[in-house]
Amino acid sequence: MLTNNTGPVAKLYLSIIYDVIESIRELFLDEGLEDRVLDDLKHLWESKMMQSKAMEDLRKNTINSSNFVLQLPANYTQTDQELGASVVIPASHSIHSFPMKNNSETLATFSLPAGLTYPVQIPAGVTLQTASGQLYKVNVPVVVTQAPAGQPPESKTTHKVTERREAAAPQSAAIPPNATHPQEAEPPSVPATAVTQPPHPKPTLPPGQESSLPQQPPVPAVEPSQRQGAHSPEPEVTLEENEPSPQPEPVSLRMTASPCSQMLDFQICTEEVLTHTAQLKNRDIDDILKEVIEEEREKAERARNRMPAKTDNQSEAVLGLDLDYNYSELSDIVQLDGPAGNSDIEEEEEVPLEENDFLGIINAEAVKALQEGDGSSDGNSISSTSDSEGADELANVEEEDPLNSGDDVIEQDIPDLFDTDNVIVCQYDKIHRSKNRWKFHLKDGVMCYGGRDYVFSKAVGEAEW
Amino acid sequence: MAYQLYRNTTLGNSLQESLDELIQTQQITPQLALQVLLQFDKAINTALANRVRNRVNFRGSLNTYRFCDNVWTFVLNDVEFREVTDLVKVDKVKIVACDGKSESTQNKNDKWWVIK
């Protein structure tokens, strides 16, 4: 069996962690740092390793990997397991305590003990206790589901239950069932494992808001700025069983990274509404543009029909005025050179050019029509062709100028070539090449592919270039 | 001094992230963090040399190769890793390999100082 994430690799990693911690203990003492700092480092390091997929099998296979202890109420019986989930009450002690950051924030990280299979259903009334003694009371039934494979690393916490610290009173703690889509993961800056609790929890949100929380559909997009902004002013959400929301089934936790789901969801909803209205506005603008173009065509046709009865100057003036008016509308509404902002000058330059061209074409045709004294049919045909040509030219100008996509030069080959998650870091004993056949003799390597880690003492390979 | 190339592993990256968090909270100094990383380099080099005893074979097609500063960098495609009976296939893998015969490659200058 490949020495991947089963015992050998995990044990090796843990032993390395232990060695490093012990070797730097004196360093920390020399710096005058407390053991608490060293413990924090150790816990951080171990938690990150445990939560990475590289150690995923360790979590599955190791029995004593529980990070928290379930304390169930006296009236909890095994019959609850008939609900379909397997809930095991681990009797083992927890290995990891949870670090305190300057007593202001707490990283509350739970990982389900080995032996539990997903989904795990935690009934109401369950109290979770960390090794450090912090209590987290589950007041509503919670189902912890595991995210499907292929999730980005930031979303690996789907199997973790993030709960709030219980207040001094035995009030129900808050369980933020995040309705965020699991693939819309938190920003990379947020640790995948932990959720920072607020230093100053806000008062409980009104029940109306709370009730809407579990029923919100998954949000398609989450802005990192909103998430980061939502982290600091996190309200303390209290979900009670007597909420007006009629939700008999348990709440499903998809993403447990952000406790401030309510405010975040509201922000997301508003953002969605804004984008939707923006789309509506764009559509309105397109409709307006079409209408204006059609009006112009009609006016041009009417003008040509009237041309034999009018003088040249008057027709030109009428046309010019009409066209100017329409083009002014167009210039106000349409940004011909694309969405990129600082191109007002270009707009002003372009619009007059286009306007002049368009006017020139129509006027030329109108003059021809007057000179030739053609009938209405010919005039219409000429006007229609001129109109179509003008419209096409306008469209072509719109297409070519704003985008200029043909000028883009994308050089992504080289960076992408060397950018891969599958990396082997090792030492080489011998690298041999014969024509285009290469032979590799490697040693002491750490491999990482598919997010999982492998190690080897010797590796021999062949490849053809 | 040991090779620092193992810092770009899951273990090394998680350690660096943890140290960065402690630096941000001003619990440790950057110099101390550097010392920790140096200790990590020693520990992982020792562990890999002494505690790992397995052999892997692989075969694939070589896409690119690079040799600079005594460091080989390969990119292979469609690689099969085989150990005893297990087989793992990977579409693309990058191999970064330092010279295994001279561990003090990074500190050539230091060697000269010692001689002097």
Describe this structure in words.
The complex is a heterodimer of chains A (465) and B (116). With 465 residues, chain A is α+β, with helices and mostly antiparallel strands. Among the domains of chain A are: 1-72 and 122-138, Helix Hairpins (Orthogonal Bundle), CATH 1.10.287.100; 422-464, Transcription factor IIA (TFIIA), beta-barrel domain (TATA box binding Protein, subunit D, domain 2, Roll). Chain A has helices spanning 7-30, 35-51, 56-61, 207-215, 224-231, 261-306, 312-333, 344-372, 376-403, 413-417, and strands at residues 69-71, 100-101, 105-106, 120-122, 126-129, 135-138, 142-144, 251-253, 423-434, 437-449, 452-464. In chain A, helix 7 (312-333) runs antiparallel to helix 8. The longest helix of chain A has 46 residues, at 261-306. Chain A starts with 6 loop residues before the first helix and ends with a strand. The model of chain A is unreliable at 63-70, 78-112, 149-262, 264-268, 315-324, 343-353 and 381-385 (pLDDT under 50). With 116 residues, chain B is of the alpha+beta class. Chain B has 2 domains: 5-51, Transcription factor IIA gamma subunit, alpha-helical domain (Helix Hairpins), CATH 1.10.287; 57-98, Transcription factor IIA (TFIIA), beta-barrel domain (TATA box binding Protein, subunit D, domain 2). Chain B has helices at residues 10-24, 30-50, 108-115, and strands at 55-68, 71-83, 86-99. In chain B, strands 1-2-3 form a 3-stranded antiparallel beta sheet, with no helix packed on it. In chain B, helix 1 packs antiparallel against helix 2 (30-50). Chain B is elongated, with a radius of gyration of 18 Å. The chains are: A alpha+beta (465), B alpha+beta (116). The interface between A and B is large, with 64 and 70 residues. Strand 9 of chain A pairs parallel with strand 3 (86-99) of chain B. Chain A: This is General transcription factor IIA, 1-like. Chain A: One of its GO terms (biological process) is transcription initiation at RNA polymerase II promoter. Chain A: Its main location: nucleus. Chain A: It is found in: Nucleus. Chain A: InterPro entries: TFIIA_asu/bsu (IPR004855), TFIIA_b-brl (IPR009088). Chain B: It comes from Perca fluviatilis (European perch).
